[in-house]
Amino acid sequence: MKEEEEEKLQKSYLTGDEDLRRASQLVDSLISSSYSVRTLPMKWRVIREKLEQLHSGLTVAAGGNQEGSYNSSALAELLRDIVSMAAETQALAHRCSEEGYSGGKLQMRSDLDVIASKIDLQIKRLGEVYASGILTDAQAIIVSRPSAGASREDMRFYVKDLFSRLRIGDSEMRDRAIAALAEALHEDDKYARIVVLETDDGVGLLVRLLDSRAAGFQEEAAEAVSVIAGFDSYKGALITAGVIASLIRVLETGTDVGRSRAARALRKLTENSDNAWSVSAHGGVTALLNICRDAGSGEELITSTSRVLRNLSSVSEIRRFMVEQGAVSIFLNILRSRNKEPFQIQAIEFLHTLASDDEAIKEKVAIDTLCFSSASAMSSLAAHGFLDRILFYVKNGEPSTQELALKAALRLGTSTDETKKTMGDMGFIPALISLLETKSFDVREMAAELLCGLVSVQRNRRRFIQEDYNINRVLQLLTPDDEKSVSKKFLLSILISLTENHSGRRKIAASGYMKNLEKLAETDVVDAKKIVKKLSGNKLRNIFSGLWGS
Predict the structure, then answer these.
(1) CA angle (123, 214, 142) in 5-degree steps
(2) 230 or 357, which is more confident
(3) CA distances (Å), 461 to each of 134, 148, 504, 513, 529, in order?
(4) Do residues 387 and 422 make contact, with C-beta atoms less than 8 angstroms apart?
(5) Contact by Cβ (8 Å): 308, 267
(6) CA 374 from chain center: how many Å?
(7) Burial class (CB in 10 A: 0-12, 13-18, 19+), 194
(8) How far apart are CA 234 and CA 190, in angstroms?
(9) What is the 8-class DSSP label of residue 513?
(10) Are 158 and 145 in contact (CB under 8 A)?
(11) Contact, 241 vs 203, CB < 8 A?
(12) Which domain of life does the UniProt lineage start with (predicted)?
């Protein structure tokens, strides 16, 4: 008799794959029917979300079975309980749709809470079955990412599969799933939309994964969050899910890679000053400054962290708190002790931002007296090749690096005439001329402003005038209807400086682009009229006397 019972039990195990599919189908049917229930819709929404999570796990298990069966009494018992729970929930849905629910709405709420708890229990048990290794074959397979141009439905199925594995898989399965998700988010923007808007608790789960103790897993989760944080329309979902507190915990306890990725996410999120307050409230300023204070922090980590601090410093109260926490000494130490250009540029830019709009902070920072205003400090920087490195990044850097380098050059270029001469001798002028038509408006403006400062020195004016191309380029950019051109004030200031030299006046007047200057003068642009009048007051009076009176 005992042998017969064991044989009967064994046969029930061997049909486990069929039971998995049946349970999955029942839960899927229940999800569909739940939409028709109109009573207590929020309660049913919570139940539906839990059912979808359970259904995802069952689908993964049923679809991944390679052997054709599962041999497990624990799984068989779980599936029987899921079927029973599904039947109970279906009956409750019918009762909720009928009038005169016995016990009234209070009893109905209680019954729905009980069902929700039962579903939670089944989800937990399914996770335990995965952890036991029973479903090893199923968990080993990650669905292939859809090819480029795949349908939205295929992409949605892929994301749903990954999140199922993240919810109920073991550590290896979850590692593969989070890495695959991060790759997908980088590959196509549509995946971010699917995660945020079309995956139940997708953002919430990603935020919770940031608290994982597994370093590699946490790093991939931070990467996924960082990608999503790059979309303005999805930042709100991340904030609502509590991402800032989780990212700061990564900054405090994560690896360098994880902290760099968390900092990148925070940089994107703190472009909004409202989020800056949230970072400060969760202790983010202190965590970020501690990273910059640590001599062992790597280049990428320091760079990412500095950019977050720059965003936070846009709020005056936070800026003052930074100073109180020693931000000035921290970044001056970076400037003095780190020889690599990215460190120095980030430090200069942050200190400049910190002091720019607050006289009290400017006095404490003392950036002008410590770094840029004294000839000895300038000589020290030049002696260590700092200007060479700045020029290198002006010529060869990515747009963001060029911008930082130009900001540093502007600070240096407004210190002393000797510094301006040194920059002219080094070749800054042709490098800046080439940037006057770059795509970045900020880069164009800073290049023109720095040129304006450099040609205020006689030696640099002669150097500028020697090349006909330089004058022609400036005049050409004065085209009145060119919206992409540099601000006319800097270009005209350059020309005003050049008219201090006889050869400068002669070459301006002889340029084929002189007509652009004349058109501006005709529209009563004051500086343009001054230049034309100055030209007409010399040997070239005969050219312009018919056009301009005194």
Answers:
(1) 55
(2) 230
(3) 80, 55, 8, 19, 21
(4) yes
(5) yes
(6) 38
(7) buried
(8) 12
(9) T
(10) yes
(11) yes
(12) Eukaryota
| Amino acid making up residue 155 | M
pLDDT tens sequence across 291-339: 999 888 888 898 899 999 999 998 889 988 998 898 888 887 887 777 6
pLDDT tens across 437-488, in order? 888 888 889 999 999 999 999 999 999 999 889 999 999 888 866 555 557 8
Q: DSSP labels for 152-166?
A: HHHHHHHHHHHHHHH
Contact (Cβ atoms closer than 8 angstroms) between residue 484 and residue 518: no
Phi, psi of 264 (to 5 degrees): -60, -40
- The label of the residue with tokens 């968990």 reads 139
**Alpha helices of 384-525 — where are they, by DSSP H?**
386-396, 399-413, 417-426, 428-434, 441-454, 458-466, 468-476, 488-498, 502-510, 514-522
How does DSSP assign 190-217, residue by residue? HHHHHHHHSSTTHHHHHHHHTT-S-HHH
Contacts of 182 (CB under 8 A, 6+ apart): 220, 223, 224, 227
Task: Give me 489's structure tokens.
Answer: 């004030």
Cα–Cα dist 196/181, whole Å: 13
Residue 169: partners with Cβ closer than 8 Å, 6 or more residues away: 130, 139, 177
